[in-house]
Structure formats: structure tokens, C-alpha cells
Design brief:
Mean pLDDT: 95
Shape: globular
Strand order of the largest sheet: 1-3-2
Radius of gyration: 13 Å
Number of helices: 4
Distance between the termini: 15 Å
Strand content: 5-15%
Length: 91
């Protein structure tokens, strides 16, 4: 959620949550359709926190799973802002 809000606030991305989320090939849940699954209570709480300005990503514009992402992918060239478990946040 924080990455989406950070992108909305960035001049390099659409200026709406919907515009950011639905930007082509940006978020796997949109591409694979899982965005339409029923949200868990944990996901809802995280979304509210992001909307109210809590940014655990520390101003990240990107994130990836450290285990599933290939070391050669461009995302690993981005400066890391935070890491929570296997999820890496980057700018």
C-alpha cells in the first residue's frame, strides 16, 4: 500500500490510486487476477495504514521478494529503503 501511495505522490506515475494499481505490468496481483480475491483483515489494515500516512517502505517506489527475484533483474540495482522479511523495498 505504501508503495502505491508513494507512486501517486511521485510525478513519474499516475496521480490516482487506481491509475497506479492498474498501470500495465506493474503489480502481479493485477496481472494474474488475484487482486479480485477477497481481502484479508491484515490486508485491509495495511491499506488503511498506508492511506493514513504510515510508510513502512520508507518512501519506496518498488518492492520485490528477495527469494523469488533473480539476482540479474534490474530491480536489484535500485537503492534499498527497507526490508521486511523476504520483501525488499527500493527507490
Amino acid at each position: 500500500g505504501a508503495v502505491v501511495i508513494n507512486r501517486v505522490l511521485s510525478e513519474n506515475y499516475p496521480n490516482t490510486i487506481s491509475g497506479v494499481i492498474n498501470q500495465q505490468e506493474q503489480f502481479t496481483p493485477v496481472s494474474d487476477g488475484t487482486i479480485n480475491n477477497v481481502a484479508t483483515q491484515q490486508a485491509i489494515k495495511a491499506a488503511y495504514k498506508a492511506l493514513y500516512g504510515i510508510d513502512t517502505s520508507k518512501q519506496a517506489l518498488f518492492f520485490y521478494n528477495d527469494i523469488l527475484t533473480s539476482p540479474t533483474q534490474w530491480i536489484r540495482t535500485r537503492p534499498i529503503t527497507n526490508k521486511i522479511g523476504e520483501i525488499v523495498f527500493a527507490r
